[in-house]
């Protein structure tokens, strides 16, 4: 479904929304903080965005759809870093105080202002091309697991493995550029349970006792993430009689899959009879979320998605941006799962009771959070 211009709140948010929902998981500051002085948490995150700028500049430099791309890419990097320095000096500048939504929006707005519409398109296309031939193999491996609980865990691990393909992480972007990514290798190298937030056993229990009527899945990245992680899971839901709505971004940002791209991916994976490896897809719907960032504020989604989601009884928010940075503690009127890999060492707040005193941790951290 196409997105309209007017945005509305996601209908499954707990009401009243004003007192039950905040779009950012970690507070960068508190009311008692000096409004003109950056907090240690703000500085930590501003540095994180600053460190990611070179990978964005490099992608922009190679964008053949933009005239004088190297010059404009250098201008982007200089202006964005200057914005970050401004915010360090005065947190109220550039629409602050800062949070992850603001910092992402400033970056995307600046790229679009300079004519860069999709600087990661080439790498997305390459990763999609690599993942498509593997889809059937991954599905067959899952289908061969007779034990339902083990099959479910394998599907969830596949989502984690696919979600590693995230070029918003400076460290992973560098590793990807150097070595590429391997879905099977990622599956094998996942940390063992219990994960840093691990509600999988509760989800497994619910899975065994009920079949949801409709699931809305907010998807994340192109390539292995959507094709080898999310789609096998969505296919399993379809097999159980659940209608599935996949909500994808309206506009490109980083390597997130967009609504048009997802339509194309699904069309390539279906066979001549419209089946997804033998599974009927009449219950599979693709929705434009209306979003244009790697994070999402659920008070602002497309009317079409809101209409489709109004009677859903399961919501899945996947990925570091949507599932963790902005909606880890989002309270919904139905079952909800927040699932993703914490790929930045700085994002170590997940299991800290006092978020303000969070300290960096090394390595990926796996989150599976059920509400």
TrEMBL record:
Lineage, top-rank taxon, reads Eukaryota
* Record's protein name: Uncharacterized protein
Q: Which organism is it from?
A: Persea americana (Avocado)
